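Before going further, learn to read the protein records used in this course. A complete example follows; check for yourself that the lines match position by position.
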Amino acid sequence: MVFGALGRALSTRNARIFFGASLTAWTGLWMHRIAVAWLAWEMTGSALWVGLVAFSDLAPAAFISPIAGAVADRVDRVRLTTIAQAAIALEAATVATLVATGLMRVEWLILLELCAGTAASFLQPARQTLISGIVPKSELPAAVACNSLVFNIARFIGPALAGPVIAGFGVAPAIACNAVAYVCALASMAMLRVAPAHRRGHPATSSLWGEVRDGLSYVGRHPGLGPLLAYAAAMGVLLRCVQELLPPFVERNFARGADSLAMLTASFGIGALVAGLWLSTRGRIQGAARISIFSGLAQALSIAGFVGTGWFGFGLACAACIGASTSMQGITTQQLAQTAARPEMRGRVLALWGLITRACPALGALMLGGAGEAFGLRLPALVGVGLSLIVFAWGLGRLARIEHSLEAPPPELLPDPARG
């Protein structure tokens, strides 16, 4: 059956609650992102300030994620998830209130987004490590793909809702929806039944910093995880930043407004949704490394088309391709990281992945936004595409080593001969 792997990943009560709450929270998150980016652009008219706002949300991962991963491996992950979700809901409610009352300033927006980014840095490893506790071990690759699929469904629904809400009622209601969504996700945590072995990676040791160093050293020495995550990080800096600066692209390249921003973001989501659905039905990790490496090439070519055109219809098509290629790289990289990492290291490895997915686009957005003030956005973005082709050649040269290291399933995911 085509959707057999996906159906098995959703077969348990825990999984349905977990992914349902994820869909709710991430839909609110995407509404928040669209609204905040448009708010920053409206307040300043500056690509640099839009980049700074994106940077403030994503950059805390660069400093917090390694620590957050070690924390997620030694504390109750359900409790940590609950606290982080509450913090994000509070931040969204505060932003919405300041906007609605006319008291918002861009400096306060940056400060509040820094707070939300810090909470998200703790939330990502805590929540993602729970996946291994809500599905059978044999269905973990499908569940990881399902998790990304849910994220990209929200990536389609959120902008589709945000555009009309912003156009009809303003930015504040769209941001308030994120607060409500995270409160709903927060309430769902009490409904989960997670075994103690999956709520905590290992007993706490005397040194948190020692565990942070151990996690970084583990990834750095790993023959597959090290180069795969380095490849993803480089692509994140050079290419993912374009998606963080959509408002300036919408107005400068296409001469359009908030509705078109929502259409573009929804196109990213549609492409990601199709790619995620396909990967969810695969239900296996064999071939994932090749997909991850070549998705970087596809993303580079799609971005070249997107930044090089002024035709909005072609821009929408390129956005869908960018969304698909970004999703394929993200899903396959996370599948390999989840299945290859030792259980006691899983939180730290996933935290490092969270750092890559948040801090690298943030750094790239800051660089692209700054360069855009001097040279326009098109030329710096195309320079990034050219550099990413060099990174692709580097990754392709290491593909065989990555495949050999990561695509053999670990013993706990192999079928049990005693069970036939």
Summary: Residues 410-420 have pLDDT under 50 and may be disordered. Residues 13-44 form the longest helix (32 residues). The two ends are 21 Å apart (CA to CA). The chain has one domain: 4-200+209-409.
